[in-house]
Amino acid sequence: MDAFIPYFSDGAWFLLHQAHLTTLTLLILLFFVYSLADYRRALMLSVVFAAATLVGMILSACELFHLRSALTAFLLPFLATLLALFNILGAGAKHSAILEKTGYAIDILFGIVLGLSMGSGYGQADGTVFPLLCFTLGLAVGTILAALVVLCISSLVAFFGVNRRDYILVLSSIAIGLMIPLLIRTFPFTLR
Fold it and tell me: 23, 33, 88, 134: least surrounded by Cβ within 10 Å?
């Protein structure tokens, strides 16, 4: 139990660290298109995100697959920007199956890339997958809580009569504005 609590709390508080602004931005982009009535979809996205992160962490910890840190630092804001663009393109329509599948695909890719970026640190802590499982369980709990908070805010905004399309456009545009400096700063390719 003494080994469980530190890893679990690391996972549960992971989203609130300032260094993980990209992860929090992506999760807000995933969840705010839903309302509180769609809580099952949001919970499923949370679990899929945590499972994809676990897969990436296991691949990295077992040294089966690696990404350069420069590429990882670029891919995370790129995927968040891509999701924001898809949200903008689909803002006027009722949440369609194509947008939902796109959200799941980006959720899975983001989780795997995030797991690849940090898996070796947790996986080599005691030579087992126990730290990875504890961290992922904490991450799932933290993500579910974040989803519920975003769903409540989204429903509250809709309750006060704000047009769904408008707040999707505004929040997606703000997210793109936050991600563009990160994309420029972390661009891993040279044009020679």
Answer: 88
Check if the beta carbon of residue 47 is closer than 8 Å to that of residue 142. Answer: no
Q: What is the predicted pLDDT for the residue at 53?
A: 92
Q: Please tell me the number of Cα atoms within 13 Å of 83 on its side-chain side.
A: 32
Sign of CA dihedral 14, 15, 18, 22: positive
- How confident is the model at residue 52, as a pLDDT? 95
Residues 22, 82 contacting (CB under 8 angstroms): no
Residues 6+ apart with CB under 8 A from 15: 23, 24, 27, 142, 143, 146
Which residue positions in the chain have pLDDT lower than 50?
Answer: 192
Q: What is the pLDDT of residues 65-97, one digit of tens each?
A: 888 888 888 999 999 999 999 888 887 666 666
Look at residues 109, 129, 122, 135 and name the one whose alpha carbon lies nearest to residue 14.
135
Judge contact between 80 and 110, C-beta under 8 A.
yes
The b/e string for 53-87 (b: 16+ C-beta within 10 A; e otherwise) is bbbbbbbbbeeeeebeeebbbbbbbbbbbbbbebb
Written as six digits, the tokens of 141 are 């709990």
Measured in whole angstroms, the distance separating CA 47 from the mean position of its chain's CA atoms is: 11
